[in-house]
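Tutorial handout. Part one gives the primary structure; part two gives the three-dimensional structure as tokens.
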Amino acid sequence: MSPFSTLIVILVSSIMIHHLPLASSTQWCVASPTSKEKQLEENLGFACANGVDCRPILEGGACYNPNTPLGHASYVMNAYYATHDRTDYACKFFFPNSAMLTTTNPSYGSCVYA
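Part two.
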């Protein structure tokens, strides 16, 4: 292979590597916007009763606002998911018909999603 061909292969490889998606990109488990309020309330109860620290969604907590079932459920659903190895099972099985995975970090202000 000529030096010029080698240079072209290296350049093309470098460009391609920088455009490949990362296999280990982080995901978050959040409430689907189409979820029914009753299901979100059940999700809140389940997560808070099963080891999730729900203090951040209480009044005055970092994740209290927006004070909506969707906002609060998203935080606790992700906290449960994060403490259970971030498996699809920990998101979709325990929060049926109301959970979705996203690669967009839902954190905002001082409310940090694990």
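Part three, for discussion. The longest strand covers residues 28-31. The chain has a mean pLDDT of 87.
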